[in-house]
Amino acid sequence: FALIYTHVARGVYFGVYLKNPHVWYSGLSLYVLSMGVGFLGYVLPWGVMSYWGLTVITNMMTVIPGGARALDWFQGGFVISDVTLKRVFILHFLLPFVILGLSLTHVLLLHMNGSSNPLGLDETEFSVPFHPYYSIKDLAGFALLLAALVGITFTFASLTADPLQWQPVNKMKTPSVIKPEWYFLYAYAI
């Protein structure tokens, strides 16, 4: 998420949202979906913090029109249960495929419309064909990031989680200190 925040900050700094709104909105959609996958993955260990985090987030659905009905469908009943956990797992599995498709769309929009040009150079004079030059570069960057993600996940998985996350769910007792993961802290401050 730190790389996503850096990428968005770069886009804001160079005014991408003014020059290429389609690229900007596809990137924001990728960000929202990534946050969804991150939150759904946070829920999957089914610890105290994830249970109460899911309770808070799902209850936010009730403030939108039709949200109460959608909440009942998502939970599989009137309360969060094992059925809800199964649905969270399914969504956590399927959303990365949506992200992959949207990422390809984002990259294609970027290469069709051109990116923001911080140097101010003439793009037609210095342009390079997309394939094979950029496609190879994009695939190499993707492979490097995927390898780093897998390495960090398998090496430091238990070190990055909240200790309360490893306690079994107690639906009758709310933890005294509830704080989201670092990538949700900006929303928690609002």
Automatic annotation (TrEMBL):
GO terms for molecular function: metal ion binding; oxidoreductase activity; quinol-cytochrome-c reductase activity. GO terms for biological process: mitochondrial electron transport, ubiquinol to cytochrome c. The chain crosses the membrane at residues 23-44, 50-68, 89-109, 139-161. Residues 120-190 form the Cytochrome b/b6 C-terminal region profile domain. Pfam families: Cytochrom_B_C, Cytochrom_B_N_2. It comes from the Eukaryota. GO terms for cellular component: mitochondrial inner membrane. Binds 2 heme groups non-covalently. It is a multi-pass membrane protein. Component of the ubiquinol-cytochrome c reductase complex (complex III or cytochrome b-c1 complex) that is part of the mitochondrial respiratory chain. The b-c1 complex mediates electron transfer from ubiquinol to cytochrome c. Contributes to the generation of a proton gradient across the mitochondrial membrane that is then used for ATP synthesis. Belongs to the cytochrome b family. PANTHER family: CYTOCHROME B (PTHR19271). This is Cytochrome b. It comes from Crassostrea ariakensis.
